[in-house]
From TrEMBL:
This is MarR family winged helix-turn-helix transcriptional regulator. It holds the Pfam family MarR_2. Gene3D superfamilies: Winged helix-like DNA-binding domain superfamily/Winged helix DNA-binding domain. InterPro entries: HTH_MarR-typ, MarR/SlyA-like, WH-like_DNA-bd_sf, WH_DNA-bd_sf. Residues 10-146 form the HTH marR-type domain. It comes from Dactylosporangium vinaceum.
Length: 156
């Protein structure tokens, strides 16, 4: 069956979205690395842990929030643990499971990085849009994320 090719407007929107995503990810990653010594992935891990009760999450919960495969999470946590940003321990409730905890050093680093990160987010995106454009962007991202979740649960 022949695919439904994108028309000019659809292609412009799609390519613009992909270019924006790539550019924004590279910008944020570069800023985090040069200002804070964190990768974007480090920031995501620390942000989720810092927002969790007691700074702790089960490994599978953290992986679900990040949408990462188990092996990627494990390898990344090993590197972060080696840098003293997180700690891992066996779950008291389930000896097979692991709990990831943000360390004092990790908490200090994410606190400093968050201030820079929000300034960068404002400079690159938030402050460039009107209130109406922000509402539209939120509507669009919510709609696409719901569709992605439905496609994932359907098994591609």
């Amino acid at each position: 069956m022949e695919p439904r090719w994108l028309n000019e407007q659809e292609e412009r929107a799609w390519r613009g979205l992909m270019a924006m995503e790539d550019g924004l990810t590279a910008f944020i990653d570069r800023r985090l690395r040069t200002r804070c010594g964190l990768s974007h992935a480090d920031y995501q891990v620390l942000a989720h842990l810092s927002e969790a009760a007691g700074g702790r999450l089960r490994s599978f919960e953290l992986g679900d929030r990040l949408h990462w495969e188990k092996s990627r999470l494990s390898q990344h946590l090993t590197r972060m643990q080696g840098r003293g940003l997180v700690a891992r321990e066996r779950s008291e409730a389930d000896q097979r499971g692991a709990v990831v905890t943000i360390t004092a050093e990790g908490l200090e680093l994410i606190s400093a990085a968050a201030r820079q990160h929000v300034a960068d987010a404002r400079d690159a995106v938030i402050d460039q849009l009107t209130a109406a454009e922000l509402r539209t962007l939120a509507t669009i991202t919510d709609k696409v994320r719901r569709r992605l979740a439905a496609l994932e649960s359907a098994g591609d």
